[in-house]
Amino acid sequence: MPAYFAYLRVSRDSQDVANQRLWLLDYANAKGYTPLTMVEETASRSIPWRERLIGKLLLERTQPGDFILTSEFTRLGGSPGQVFSILESAAARGVTLIITKTQTVMDGSLNAQIQAAAFSMASMIEVEFTRARTREGLERARLAGRIGGRRKGSTGRLKLDPQRERVGELYQLGLSIPKLARHFDVTEKTMRKFLARHFPKNGSAS
């Protein structure tokens, strides 16, 4: 009797494997691949597969005729090279790999290898597009001042805050804004705003 395994992987603890688990269980029940043994781990897909649980599962626990189910190619590895290495090892051991989302059965045949090449490359491209969109979104948000760092101009004001009394003394002695800005290494615009906020025209500190 063959044994049936399901491999689930996430990159971070905050990610949820519930959707992967549900998808795999539904597929296994529909195909009669029961009982199904779940193998779950939190690990980056950039880690060599032999150092992850998929490596121990494939190389140590499976026997010829066994099945390993996973939701998509990117669960296996972070590059087409890693994926193909896993497929080659599975074929050599007589283990069938099934990618449930695309219903791709990797049984070592030439047709299966061609399918794997196409689906694996498409999966990697999709991941890269998603990463690019995320980076672009974060950059737009950062430039809009919503996240990541301080808004333009705030660094100088924070730099002046600890020296507020000294700024006030020099300002009341008649030192010009350009000279104050050079002395404290900030822009004239920043110095002008700082003085307007803390030292109104009447000369009293706020």
Automatic annotation (TrEMBL):
Annotated SUPFAM superfamilies = Resolvase-like
Q: Which Pfam families match?
A: Resolvase
Give residue ranges for domain Resolvase/invertase-type recombinase catalytic. 3-145
Q: Which InterPro entries match?
A: Resolv_N (IPR006119), Resolvase-like_N_sf (IPR036162), SSR_resolvase (IPR050639)
Q: Name one GO molecular function term.
A: DNA strand exchange activity
Please report the name of this protein according to its UniProt entry.
Recombinase family protein
Source organism per entry reads: Ralstonia pickettii
